[in-house]
Amino acid sequence: MCAAEAKPVVTRFAPSPTGYLHIGGGRTALFNWLYARGRGGKFLLRIEDTDRERSTPEATEAILQGLRWLGLDWDGEAVSQFEQKDRHAEVAHQMLARGTAYKCFSTQEDIATFRAAQEAAGASYAVFQSPWRDADPASYPDLPYVIRMKAPRDGETVIDDQVQGRVVIQNATLDDMIVLRSDGTPTYMLAVVVDDHDMGVTHVIRGDDHLNNAARQQMVYDAMGWDIPVWAHIPLIHGPDGKKLSKRHGATAVGDYQVQGYPAAGMRNYLTRLGWAHGNDEFFTSQQAMEWFDLGGIGRSPARLDFKKLENLCGQHIAAAEDAALLHEIEAFLAAAHMELLTDAQRDLLSRAMYCVKDRAKTFLELIEKARFALVSRPVSADAAAEAALDTVSRGILKTLTPRLQTVSWTKEELEPILTEIAAAHGIGFGKLAAPLRAALAGRTATPSVYDMMLVIGRDETISRLKDAAG
């Protein structure tokens, strides 16, 4: 029986702290977060740290930091799976008492002998059948044992999956899996089910590489008489070439995208849309995503990473963001990328410049480059193209311009006629004058408008930079 639909929604994300937070894991966490938050439910975090040799505190912190950057908050404290090992063992012994599990004293040699005999008999695949499954406890030897659950020998196990549909597994292919090792430690298959049950998880939303696990885990639920959660196994993310995502495709860690200057809102939007659809909507806010997200919108085919679409969405989110929030995230980006942090004066100037630099910037790196005019100190260094624009004639024109700027009101309406007049007096269009002005003010030839730069940095700084460039 599946009674999860009648309960308040509880989802979970359960990463293993053996490395960074993969982009696929980030999307899985996001789907769980959106589904829970959109229904007033809970989103829980469990660190599956039972692999003591490979699990590290550094990896755990990297996962937490990746989730924080994505803006995915979880309810309560993160749960350590390893710390629940006594509870897992307790459930294994409860299964013994219920008769749904048994002690198995077979050795590795016994299992190898069984399989060799099956192969000799022509069996292409042999599920180990323990001789201890129905043995009289009075015949148990005083030897180490494992606890195996009693899998059904015939019939089929059905997984009603919200993404993959009805999945049928023949029980003859399922072995009596070990739930407790001979050293008393639980196996992954048992630990996951016990944790999900104890945490009240109603919906298990995870990668479809776990789909085969669902049949075996569902038997644990049945063995304990527990409600089975709603299953939703989502396809994995592939690279642009359709192959399994790897480092050859570019960044695979969530943290790498922060360091490359992508805004979190844009990343959330893109990852939500990666394998899920709401009509033809591409750009949407996180609030809209929470309201719209459902399991029925998830496709069955692997999604392909598309960096151009990611950049396009990120550019839209940068343009739409509130200036104060954008400034805060840019400072977090600079810290994460180990770049030079903003001074108080630069922070003020960048805030003032935001209106003219955030349009059409796809990343924070691009935005900072556009805002270079507001962040540099005199003397402004020019690149090759800007240096070429500051020829002898142009420098002479700048010299005639600076006195006219001393007393004019500092508005575009007052500045525009003066610049136009200076250009006409020298027999050139304004476009010809704009190039050396850009070079003088920003050290670049591709910049925001000349008027925007002059208004942001102010009269005194503008005149000083023009004088520096004029020589």
UniProtKB/TrEMBL annotation:
Its EC number is 6.1.1.17. Residues 339-469 form the Aminoacyl-tRNA synthetase class I anticodon-binding domain. GO terms for molecular function: ATP binding; glutamate-tRNA ligase activity; tRNA binding; zinc ion binding. It catalyses: tRNA(Glu) + L-glutamate + ATP = L-glutamyl-tRNA(Glu) + AMP + diphosphate. ATP binds at residue 247. Keywords: Aminoacyl-tRNA synthetase, ATP-binding, Cytoplasm, Ligase, Nucleotide-binding, Protein biosynthesis. GO terms for cellular component: cytosol. The keyword tRNA-binding does not apply. Pfam families: Anticodon_2 (PF19269), tRNA-synt_1c (PF00749). Residues 9-311 form the Glutamyl/glutaminyl-tRNA synthetase class Ib catalytic domain. Catalyzes the attachment of glutamate to tRNA(Glu) in a two-step reaction: glutamate is first activated by ATP to form Glu-AMP and then transferred to the acceptor end of tRNA(Glu). Belongs to the class-I aminoacyl-tRNA synthetase family. Glutamate--tRNA ligase type 1 subfamily. This is Glutamate--tRNA ligase. It comes from Paragemmobacter aquarius. The gene is gltX.
